[in-house]
Amino acid sequence: MPLAKLPFAPGVNKEGTQYSAQLGWYDSDKIRFRKGRVEKIGGWEKYSQNAVNGVPRALQDWGTAQATAYLAVGTNLKYYVESGGVFQDVTPIRVTTAAGDVTFSATNGSSTITVSDTAHGAVASDFVTFSGAVTLGGNITASVLNQEYQIATIVDVDSYTITAKDTSGVEVTANASDTGNGGASVVGAYQINTGLNIYVQTANGWGSGNWGESPWGEGTGLSVANQLRLYSQDVFGDDLIFNPRLGGVYYWDESTGGRAFDIGQLPSPASTPTTALQVMVSDVDRHVICFGANPIGSSNIDPLLVRWSDQENAADWQPTATNTAGGQVLSTGTSIIGAIKTRQEILIFTDEGIQSMRFIGAPFVFSFSLVSQNMSIVSPRAAASVGDAVYFMDLDGFYIYQGSIQRVPCSVHSYVFDNLNRDQAFKSFSYNNPDFSEITWFYPVGTGNTEATSYVTYNYSENVWAVGTMDRSAFISAQTKEYPVGAGVDISDLSANYVYSHELGNDADGEELVAYVESGGFDLTDGNSFSFGKRFIPDFRFSGNPNAVDISIVVKGRDFPLDDFTDLATSSITASSTQAHIRTRSREVAVKITSSGTGYGWTLGDMRFDFRTDGRR
Predict the structure, then answer these.
(1) For all residues of the chain together, what is the average pLDDT?
(2) What ranges do the domains of the chain cover?
(3) Max CA-CA distance within the chain?
(4) Which of 69, 290, 463, 532, by CA, is between 20 and 30 Å from 276?
(5) CB of 541 within 8 A of CB of 605?
(6) % of the chain surpassing 70 pLDDT
(7) Percent of the chain with pLDDT over 90
(8) DSSP-derived secondary structure letter, 419
């Protein structure tokens, strides 16, 4: 038969078999669908050559009235504010000891230093900065001691160990002369407790497992230090307010810089929350809101309590007749999972339902109404706001809220949710890319301590889906930046995690960005006859360097749907390729297009194939 176009429908469909997806796409990685066409996604480069310490799970960009651009990055170990490519450590100080409370003890021939500090309150991996120490008498000099250390092990509630190092980071071994204790002027400044890289499933009480799977409400088995570290943050004028989940609420003052501090240290504080699950600044009325907080007069968190400050005042949380501070305990569920702002509304997800929060002014300030029961969200970061709509991922599907909840039809539903690692589902997160009308959810697969290395993308303008893999732990559209910003994760080296500018160029930070798309199986005469493939005409639009184009097109075949596909013909395509001659015979055919190399992008047009019915010799 003559050359004929194969009109592959846009979008990946993995709900059935590869045969049932014929004349459509069945699998993909690092491609998108735009205007019905397949194209390779944009590349990425390091936003800064400076790495951050820990796994980044929170990003926030903003600009000041003076046109200074900032990017906040929260990791399980640190909290940073970036400007000009430099990441400033603004992690709050939890406590500073009195002079002499800290003493040191060294052992000849060892770099391990035992630090004694009664009721230190630290956990392993916490950071502490010492000052005022004098030499121990040998190799452990004052300059070795008077710097920041990460705690190696916790010996008991009154002592822990560190590994001695010089100011360049090289380990220092004590000798027989190191018999001192650091002197009577040693001060230890402890940063807030670090968090975990795993989602805890075994502790008792609310927050210890996925909603609906554990004994919510039976206790508080978790603390800010022994659960997956997730930050929430929002901009308050030129400043930043942030909260480690189940921890304190902190304020970073842009005008003074330096470290962030507890909002209780703001001028004229009144009944400020000491613990929260999430913090947010309402968009129009500018109240600071805590979702899940300690009631006034208590240090214990109420996971259903929503508290808000006085309008335009992050320090005053005491309701009076002359301010708009207040609070409301939600009526549905046992804990708030997360909340997200949409147009003139805040959507609150509990473990058993969804509620709407709206600003109505005095005397009630906010109104609350039930939107839906018996549904929630897979993690605190799994919702994305697009105009007046909110897209979110639950444990059983994808949904959209536009005044009411509707399920979003998904052609890759089983593929995503059958592979989702539910033990670590709290690592899932969403990202809105408005330039391409896309919502992408990153999620963990497999078992064990698995990061969110798989993704699923929904193009809400064209109603199509794509899937793929990418090592990311946080992502934002970054409206104050030229490009979207994503954070990489390298569990093997927590000190080498980077932030990246995305949709920039065609490569993966200078390396090849391999992308592919594979069709469903298709046949002639419903498979009653064998198909003979003679040739095909490639059709691509290339960007970047045309001399770098390196595309492989594999024609696969099988005779029965339960057979495995085998590669029948592989053709290398360059920017100057006119046609590719093949010789294939099979009842069912599939096509896989893979791009390798660096320096170019591509969009697939209408490929034409020369197939005809034929018998097998």
Answers:
(1) 93
(2) 4-43+513-614, 44-64+71-87+410-504, 93-191
(3) 93
(4) 69
(5) yes
(6) 96
(7) 85
(8) H
